[in-house]
Amino acid sequence: GKKGDKSRGALVVLEGLDRSGKSSQSRRLVSYLEGLGISAELWRFPDRNTSVGQTISSYLSNKSQLDDHTIHLLFSANRWEKRSSMEDKLKAGTTLIVDRYSYSGVAFSSAKGLNIEWCKAPEIGLLAPDLVFYLDLPPEKAAERGGYGGERYEHLDFQRKVAEKYHLLRDDSWKIIDACLPIEDVQKQLRDLALDCITTCQSGKPISQLWL
Ligand code: NYM
Ligand code: MG
């Protein structure tokens, strides 16, 4: 393009149950992309560094109690407070690899019994991911991996409900990845699909918004 034009980065999200491997896979994906000279950053939600994020963190570690609707809106607010910096990064050409996003927000809250449409509403207008990796692992397998950290929601029965809700949220941006496969095989799939997506975004795919 013209001098000063910059092709945009891709918004790539990893979703899945607790212990499905999102955090390690996203870390590795970012290192891989950086190694290729692609500008990429690792982000995660909840972002526990903001004041909203600290409230969320205290709720997750059972240090405080909040009404289900209230905490749902705080998770959403935690994404809204990052929206403009995400957009700035993408426009500056940086690819964002994001460990959890709005789908976690809706899946976890609706698994508690909240209405799914009500859960989606505050996410409307957030940046839509260009690609969502769902690391698909049966809840029983995830539980066998151990290391549930003892946070709220980290129980097999609840994770089963979350998995059902995730199924309802699948759309065309999703790639279902078999997370039972060895770490290297999962990573290989993520790398290939992410590179394709980055190319598509570079060649002018517009940034869109969630659930409009
Ligand atoms: N979680 C995460 C939600 O309930 N709503 C959300 O919007 C997000 C982003 O927080 N069990 C839940 C899912 C996890 C927990 O996430 C903490 P992590 O990735 O373990 O830090
Ligand atoms: Mg966790």
Automatic annotation (TrEMBL):
It comes from the Eukaryota. Pathway: Pyrimidine metabolism; dTTP biosynthesis. The keyword Transferase applies. Keywords: ATP-binding, Kinase, Nucleotide biosynthesis, Nucleotide-binding, Transferase. Belongs to the thymidylate kinase family. The chain holds residues 57 to 268 of 269 of the full protein. The keyword Kinase applies. GO terms for cellular component: cytosol; mitochondrion; nucleus. One of its GO terms (biological process) is dTDP biosynthetic process. Its EC number is 2.7.4.9. Residues 14-189 form the Thymidylate kinase-like domain. This is Thymidylate kinase. GO terms for molecular function: ATP binding; dTMP kinase activity; nucleoside diphosphate kinase activity.
